[in-house]
Amino acid sequence: MTLDLQPGQKLARGVSRHLVTHGYVSIEEFVPARGLRVDVMGLGPKGELWVIECKSSRADYQSDSKWQGYLEWCDRFFWAVDTDFPTDLLPEETGLIIADAYDAEIIRMSPESKLAPARRKKMIQKFAVDAARRLQVLRDPRL
């Protein structure tokens, strides 16, 4: 299955697998607001929301000009990269995850910046609706 995935998608899969070990569920290519699309959004057991941006190369990272716009939609923000990525490029005030297609490890925990309760409620509802729609389309592709 990994043969069909792009490098960033492989990282997202490994990250999603790892989040499960922390009690999180995740959704890939999640749109928190118009014009934004995060690679992985994780939802924790206490309603925590994490955004993980997967970067497969230096060029991929340097072309990302929207990442700071994601900060207002999550409690913690992480970069997920592979072992060959030059991690010194990444801002130290963000989290760091080293990943591959099969698993990941949190190297540096992101500082917490709690969402306002109204925004958290909106994001959790959107997460649930998006996940349910994706599952429904898998079960009934005619929708």
Please provide the ordered H/E string of secondary-structure elements. HEEEHEEEH
Q: Could you give the count of β-strands?
A: 6
Largest sheet: 6 strands, mixed
Strand order of the largest sheet: 1-2-3-4-5-6
Helix-strand makeup class: alpha/beta
pLDDT < 50 runs, ≥5 residues = none
Q: pLDDT average, as an integer?
A: 94
Give the overall form: globular
- List the total number of helices: 3
Spatial gap, N to C terminus:
25 Å
- Assembly form of the protein: single chain
Radius of gyration (CA) equals: 15 Å
Helix content: 25-40%
Strand content: 15-25%
Description:
The protein is an alpha/beta fold. It is built from three helices and six strands; from the N terminus they run H-E-E-E-H-E-E-E-H. The chain has helices at residues 7-21, 58-62, 117-139; strands at residues 25-30, 38-43, 49-54, 76-81, 95-99, 104-108. It has a six-stranded mixed beta sheet with strand order 1-2-3-4-5-6. The radius of gyration is 15 Å and the shape is globular. It starts with 6 loop residues before the first helix and ends with a helix. The model has no long low-confidence stretch (mean pLDDT 94).
